[in-house]
Design a protein that fits this description.
α3 packs antiparallel against α4 (90-115) and α7 (226-238) crosses α8. It contains eight helices and eight strands, in the order αααααββββαββαββα. It is an alpha+beta fold and 296 residues long. The protein is elongated, with a radius of gyration of 34 Å.
Length: 296
């Protein structure tokens, strides 16, 4: 069918656009187009390694890109429409959705390889090329991919956790193939390579529980009555909505000099992502109360 159509099209071109009475500029333009088409066809059919051509390799890459796009769509639908109806927590749903996405991409790679005109026997050649590539820059990509699997299955870090990694503190929003998305306290989105969670020291403020102790240091005058300071601190700190009633806030002495007392108020909260805000609000409330007593 395509051969007949191309033959019919060629006869039309030869009869109307390359006829002797056709203006010379038009004939030159048509011949240029035909020559470009022949060059493009020769390039499209140019043979590559493993029995593939430029055209077949292009089709294979397009198939792979389609499966990558499809994996993202199915992954989102699977997590939001199906797994959301199960009793699984957010992290477990994200783990299963990620595994499904990986499987779809692997299937797409195999299908794309077949569409490209290659066979599974050529995977050895491809594996050799990948091995060489690992030494020239793919090592970090593979490392981050494997680290994402360790994070998903280890469950030391989950979506929604408040963590401190590589100097960045924030809430985990997404654990991707290569990066983990963290939203900092300043509202900035930070992409942290997954390999950092395997090699660096991580502080997880919310796993296995969210209870965190606050340290509020104070420097008082030497003449301050510690019993009264302790009462004021317990009243003001305990009144904060994000401070737990049990264990109750306490006052501990850290140092004594000739004219100063160094004390620290210890209190517990279940909102570690708001530590700085809580400390600031408590200090603002303590300052006038202690100054009124002449202890600052």
């Amino acid at each position: 069918g395509l051969t007949l159509i191309s033959l019919f099209g060629w006869r039309l071109i030869d009869r109307f656009l390359l006829a002797p009475n056709t203006p010379a500029p038009v004939q030159q333009f048509v011949r240029l187009l035909l020559a470009s088409g022949r060059l493009l066809k020769a390039f499209w059919n140019h043979g590559l390694f493993g029995g593939m051509t430029v055209g077949s390799l292009t089709r294979g890459l397009l198939v792979l890109l389609f499966f990558i796009w499809l994996s993202r769509r199915i992954r989102a639908l699977f997590q939001d429409r199906i797994l959301s109806r199960t009793p699984m927590d957010t992290t477990t749903r994200a783990t299963f959705a990620s595994i499904l996405g990986y499987l779809i991409i692997v299937i797409g790679f195999i299908v794309g390889l077949n569409v490209a005109g290659s066979s599974l026997q050529n995977l050895a050649l491809l594996a050799g090329a990948v091995t060489v590539g690992l030494g020239f820059g793919l090592q970090n990509i593979i490392n981050n991919f494997v680290s994402s699997l360790l994070i998903h299955f280890g469950r030391t870090i989950r979506v929604g956790d408040y963590i401190d990694v590589a100097g960045q503190r924030g809430t985990v929003r997404e654990i991707g193939f290569r990066n983990t998305v963290i939203s900092t306290d300043d509202g900035i989105t930070v992409l942290v390579p997954n390999g950092s969670f395997v090699t660096a020291n991580i502080v997880n403020w919310t796993n296995p529980n969210r209870r965190t102790r606050l340290h509020i240091p104070l420097t008082l005058l030497r003449a301050a009555h510690l019993a009264e300071v302790s009462e004021i601190a317990a009243r003001i700190v305990g009144a904060h909505p994000r401070i737990l009633a049990q264990p109750a806030p306490i006052l501990e002495v850290r140092g004594v000099t000739a004219d100063k007392l160094s004390v620290e108020i210890l209190a517990w909260t279940e909102a570690p992502e708001h530590l700085n805000a809580i400390l600031g609000e408590i200090n603002l409330a303590l300052d006038p109360a202690l100054r009124e007593k002449g202890y600052l």
